[in-house]
Design a protein that fits this description.
single chain, alpha/beta, Rossmann fold, five-stranded mixed β-sheet, 4 helices
């Protein structure tokens, strides 16, 4: 897959949704993703809208796993857009757990999309995530 064929989305503590097109840029680092806490209110607003996201059929969505689920702001992000017919590939950072029921729980926020588990990263560095995205 070419870099321009998908969106990469990551969750960062300083900027709740750091959104970049095509590949990982310095704005999304492993520390950024790992540092985000799960206890953000579910209704917290997603403060960025991406007009171009509708042009993409595949979204790569990254976040930390906390107790086998994604932070609730990820649900908020999925509910803010119409992902009907789109494929959403998940990646996550974790101290040791796997995806658990994450894909199934996120599916309720984007019911007409196909959500698949991509990869879990343990003790990750940004380069490892970038290399994995490059294989898609």
């Amino acid at each position: 897959m070419k870099d321009s064929d998908h969106w990469v989305v990551g969750v960062c503590p300083d900027d709740p949704l750091a959104l970049v097109q095509g590949r990982l840029y310095p704005e999304i680092t492993a520390n950024c993703v790992i540092a985000w806490r799960r206890n953000i209110p579910y209704s917290q607003a997603v403060n960025k809208m991406i007009e171009e996201i509708n042009a993409y059929d595949e979204i790569i969505l990254g976040f930390p796993i906390w107790w086998y689920v994604a932070p609730t702001i990820v649900n908020t992000f999925l509910e803010k857009y119409n992902f009907s017919g789109k494929k959403i590939i998940l990646f996550a950072t974790s101290g040791g757990s796997g995806f658990g029921n994450t894909a199934r729980e996120l599916q309720t926020s984007a019911p007409d999309s196909v959500i698949t588990e991509g990869k879990i990263f343990h003790n990750v560095v940004k380069q490892q995530i970038a290399e994995w995205v490059g294989t898609l």
